[in-house]
Amino acid sequence: MGENPAKSHYAQLNLGEENEMEIFGYKTQCCRKALCIAGYILSCGALLLLFYWKPEWDVWANCVPCSLEEADVVLLRTTDEFRIYSRKNVTWISVSGIIKSRLDYPSFAEEDSIFSKALMKPSLQVKSIQVQKIRYVWNIYAKQFQKVGALEDHHTCSAIHTKFGSGLTCSEQSLRRVICGPNTIDVPVIPIWKLLIKEVLNPFYVFQLFSVCLWFAEDYMEYAAAIIIMSLLSISLTVYDLRQQSVKLQRLVESHNSIMVTVCRNKEGFQELESHHLVPGDMVVLKEGKALLPCDAILISGQCIVNESMLTGESIPVTKTQLPQADNLKPWKMHCAEDYKKHVLFCGTEVIQTKGDDRGVVKAVVLQTGFNTAKGDLVRSILYPKPMNFRLYRDALRFLMCLIAFAAIGMIYTVCVFALNGEEAGEVVKKALDVITIAVPPALPAALTTGIIYTQRRLKKKGIFCISPQRINMCGQLNLICFDKVTGWESLANFQDVRRFPADHSLPWGPAFRAMVVCHSLIVLEGKIQGDPLDVKMFEATNWVIDDSSGHQIEGQRSTHATVIRPGPKANTASVEGITILHQFPFSSALQRMSVIAQETGGEKQVFTKGAPEMVATLCRAETVPSNFESKLLFYTAQGFRVIGLAYKSLQSGKQSTDLTREEVESDLTFLGLLIMENRLKRETKPVLEELSDAHIRSVMVTGDNIQTAVTVAKNAGMISPTNRVILVEANKIPGSFSASVTWKPLKENKTEDDGNLDSGSQTGRRIRLAAEPGQFHFAMSGKSYQVVAQYFSHLLPKLLLNATVFARMSPSQKSSLVEEFQKLDYFVGMCGDGANDCGALKVAHAGISLSEQEASVASPFTSRTPSIACVPELIREGRAALVTSFCMFKYMALYSTIQYLGVLLLYWQLNSFGNYQFLFQDLAITTVIGMTMSFTEAYPKLVPYRPPSQLVSPPLLLSVILNILFSLGMQILGFLMVQKQPWYSKTDIHSACLSVNNHVENSSSASSLGLHGVGGGDPTEVDNGYKSYENTTVWLLSTINCLIIALVFSKGKPFRQPIYTNYVFIMVLVGQLGVCLFLVFADIDDLYSKMDLVCTPTTWRISMVMMLAVTLAVSFLVEEAIIENRALWLWLKKTFQYHSKSHYKRLQRVLEQDSAWPPLNETFSLDAVTVSVEEDMGGHSNPTFDSNEDAL
C-alpha cells in the first residue's frame, strides 16, 4: 500500500536537519484491528512477527489514513535512501492541574511560543509524539508537529536578554516542565529479557528456528541440538555485549542528570533545585569553581572557560563570552552567524573557570534540555546509528536473493523427484523445505562481520579507536584524504620578525610586545599554561607569566574579575608591573581574528588585535599599513611561515569594557606589524603523504592558514611537485548585486607586486594523483572563493575539485560542504583533523579520523590516540584487509552452501541424502572453524596503487564463484556416475565392495550396526533404507574435502593481506581438518563408519577420489591465480572492450583531458557569461569541445 501525499495527511519533521523524516497520519479502525487479531491467532503469531519486522504493514492493516490533526497513530519514514519506517502512538499531556482556572490562562496565551500554540483550549491538553527520545507537540495554528525542549530560534539577542534575563515565573516554569519533560538524558539499562526477545526475533534466528523444527521432523536430532546450542551461545554473547554497552552508556550520562543548580525566578529571587527540573528559558547562575553543565545554555553575562573534550576530543580550554545585546530584528543565531557557539555552553562539558560581569555574576539562559542538547544528540547518535549504505552490504542482500531463487529451483526438482517416486506428501514437503536451509547459509551475516570484529581489535592495539565498525570496510575504498593537520607547533618558537619589518630581530618593549603578552586566550590550570598551541608558543617567547591568583581589578567605580600578566624572571626590563586583560573577544574562524581590551597598571586602556594579516589590515587606518605590506606578506608566506597580523589602539575613557561591541573595538586600529612563526612539518608527514601518493590516494589540504603559506607547506610535504603549476582561483561576489566573477591566474612565489586579493577567503587547490606528467597543475582557492563558486558557479565546482589540492582559510561549515562535494563526485573521502573545528566534516566523511588524546570521541567514527597522520595509511591498510576478508568469507560461505546443496540434490535422485553426523561434521567441524580463523590474516604492510573491489557483482568475483561451482559440480557428478560403473558396485548390497575385496564375512550384529533405521537381519542383499550408499559416501567425502580446497583457494594474501602462511592458526586448522578427512577416507573402522553413515570402498577407489580432489585443487588454484587474480589480464580486457569507470570524477577527468582550453589562465568569467553558457550548452565552462563531450556522456 502506498502513501497518499495529501497535505493534511502528510508533513515533514525536522525539515533540513540530519534526522529529517516524513510523517503520515492514521486513525485506528476497530473492524480492521479485529481482523488483524484474528489473523494473529490463525497464523500462530506469524502475522504479528511480520508486522514487527514491517511496522508500515501493521499501520496500513490496522488503520486508515486521516489528517495529522485527527491521527491517533503516525507513521514515520526517513528521507534518506533507506526509507526506514517506524510507528508511533499519539499521546495527550494534560496541563489542567497547572492552569487552575481560565483567569490564569491569558498569561500563557499572550506568550508567543510553542507552549501556548500547542494548548487545546477547552480541555487544556497538548497532543504529542516521541520520536528517538525527542518530544514533538502539535501546533494548533501551524497544523504541524514541532520539537519542544529547546528555546525557539526566532528570538533576537535583545529579546533573550529582556524576556529571560530575569528568569521565568513559577507558573511558566511548571507549564514548560510538563510539556517538555524532565531535563535528563535518560538511558535506562535494558533488561536482559527485552534484549533476549529482540535478539531472538531477528530474522536470522527465526530462520534458524524454522530450520531446527524441520530437522527435528526429519530425525536430525543431534544436528538440530548442536545448532540450538550454537545459536543459544551466540545469542547469549550478543545479549551480554549489548547489556555491557547499555551499562556503559548509562554511566556516561548519569553523572549530570541530577546536579544542584541555582536558578533565578522572576519576582521570587534565586532558588536551588535539581537540574532535571530545568526547562528552556530558565535563567541559571554559574558559580565559581569547576562544574558539569546539565543542559545547553546561552551565556548572557560574564565569561566562562570550558573543557569541551567530551564533545570534540580536543582538550584545549575554550573561552565562552556573553551574547551581545544587539538591537536588530535578526534571530540570535543568524546575527552571530557561525560564531554563535562562542556564546553557548554545551551539556556534558566542564566549566573550568568563570569570570563575572561588572556585578560579579555569570548568568546563562537554558537553551536546550534532555536529548535536545549537544550531549543528548551524541547519545542519540549512538542509540540510533545512521545505517551505512555500502555497496558490499547491498550486493550481499541481492546475492542472498539469488541463492533463494536457486533454492526454489531445487525445491521444484525435489518435489518432482520424490512425487514421481510415490513418496508421501508430508515427506515431499519436508525434503523440499530442507533445500532452503541448505542453499541459503544462515551464518552468512555473522560471517561478514567476523573480519570487522578482528580488525577492530587490531586497530585498538595500534591506538585507533572505532565507534562505528560498519565504516571499517569503507576505509578499504578510500581514495581521497582531506588533511587539516600536517604541521606541528612543537618548534614554533622561531620568531623571524616583529614590528614593521625592521632588519634586527629584537623584541623591545612596545605595543607589538604588549600585543604578544596579552592577545591570547590562555589560562593557568593546575599550575600549567593551557590553550591553543600557537598562543602558548607566542606567549612563552615573551618570558612573561600569567598571575593565576588575580583577584578583582578596579575599573572605574565597579569591580570585575580579570587576568593579570606580569614580567617573569627571564623577561626583559619593562616599565610596568603588569597588564590586566579586562575583556576578551575570542578568536572567530568566520572573522579570522581575536581581540582583547587590556590596561597597564596605572595606565590607559588599549585594544590589541591579532589574526589573519589580510583581515587585520582591513581594520587598520590606511596610513598605518605599510605600502609594501602585500609583498612582505607574500615573501614570508612563500617560505611556509605562519604569519599573524598585529594591531592596537587606545580607548577613550568613559564606556565600560563590557559595554563595548566588537565592531566598536575592532575599528580604526593602528597596524603594528607581522609576527612570523615557523610552522614545521611533523616528521612523519612527508613519508605518510608519499605513501598515500604511491598508492594513488589523493591528499588534499584543508587549512585555516594563508593561501601562500598553505601552498608552500603543500610543496614541502610533497602534495605538489616542484614542476607543477599552481593556479589561484579567485571568486568574488559583486556587492549589492546578484552577479559574481571567477578568475584563474598562476600563483608565483617570487612575485612582489600586488598579488590580488589574498584575503582570508583564499584557498589552495587540490591535485589529482595521476602519472607525473609535464604541465600538471593544481588549483588553489580560499574559503571565500569556494563559497562564491559553490553558490554562483556550481557547474564549475566539479571541474575545480578534480585538480584542487589546497584549500586555505576554510571555515568549519565550508569543510563539511567540501567533503560532501567530493562525495558527489564518487570519491570515497577520508577526513583527518581535530575534533573541534572539523567536527562536521569528520561526521560527513566516509571515514572521519580525529587526532585526539581521548580514547574515543563521539566527534568522529575513528579516533587516533597518537596525534599523528600516520594513523591514516594504517587505517586504510586495515580497511582493505577487512574488505578482502569480507569478500573471502562471502565467497567461501556461498560456495560451501552450494557444494552441500549440489551434493544433496544429487543424492535426492536416488531418494537419499546426507546423514545426521555428515551434516554436523561439514557445518561445525569444517565451516564454523574455518569461518572463525580465516579472518586472522593481518593487513599487508605496503599500500598498493589500487583498491580491492567494492562490489560482489564484479566480473572477477562472479567468475570465481561460478567456475568453482562448476568445478565442484563436475567433480561430484563424476564421482556419482563413476562409482556406479565400478565392478564391485551394487545398488542393493552396500557391503559388496569390501566383501569382494577382503573376503569379509559379515555377521548380523555388524550389519545391524551399519544400518541407521534398523537394517534387518544379516542378509547383505537387503536394501538399506537409511543414508548409507556408495553414492552417499563418494559425494560426501568429495564435497567435504572440496570445502577445504575452496577455503585455501579463496584465502587471499597479497597485495591486501599478509601471505596466507602467516595465519598460523588457519593453516593448522586446515591441516588438522585435512588429516581428519583423509583418515575418514582411508580408515576402515566399522563403528566410525557406522556413526558417519559411510560404507567401505576398495582402496583403489579411495585413491581415485583423492586424485579427483587433487585435480580440482590444481585447477581451482590455477584459475584463481592465472585468471581471477591476474590484474594485467583484466586491465587488458577493459582496454580491449573499452570499458570505462562509471565514477563521476573519472568521467569528468576523461572529458577534461580532451579540452585544450582547460584550465583557463588569466581569464575572468562573470555570472552572466556563464549563465548563457549553461542555457545554451548545459556545460559549466563556455568551451564548446568540453560541452559537447559532456553532453555525450
What layout of secondary structure does this protein have?
Elements: E1 10-13, E2 21-28, H1 30-42, H2 46-53, H3 55-62, E3 63-65, E4 73-78, E5 85-89, E6 91-94, H4 105-109, H5 114-117, E7 125-131, E8 134-139, E9 144-147, H6 157-164, H7 170-180, H8 192-200, H9 203-217, H10 221-254, E10 260-265, E11 269-274, E12 283-286, E13 291-292, E14 296-301, E15 303-307, H11 309-312, E16 318-321, H12 332-336, E17 344-345, E18 350-355, E19 362-368, H13 374-383, H14 391-420, H15 425-439, H16 444-461, E20 464-466, H17 471-475, E21 480-483, H18 511-518, E22 523-525, E23 528-530, H19 533-540, E24 544-547, E25 552-555, E26 558-561, E27 563-567, E28 579-588, E29 593-600, E30 605-611, H20 613-619, H21 629-637, E31 642-650, H22 662-665, E32 670-677, H23 685-694, E33 698-702, H24 707-717, E34 725-733, E35 740-746, E36 777-782, H25 783-792, H26 797-802, E37 804-808, H27 812-824, E38 829-833, H28 839-844, E39 847-851, E40 862-864, H29 871-908, H30 916-933, H31 955-981, H32 992-998, H33 1004-1010, H34 1030-1050, H35 1064-1082, H36 1086-1091, H37 1099-1124, H38 1127-1136, H39 1144-1153, E41 1163-1166, ...
Parallel strand pairs: 21-33, 21-38, 33-37, 34-36, 36-37, 38-39, 39-40
Antiparallel strand pairs: 1-2, 2-3, 2-4, 4-5, 6-7, 7-8, 8-9, 10-11, 10-12, 12-19, 13-18, 14-17, 14-19, 15-16, 15-18, 20-40, 22-23, 24-27, 25-26, 27-28, 28-29, 29-30, 30-31, 31-32, 34-35, 35-41
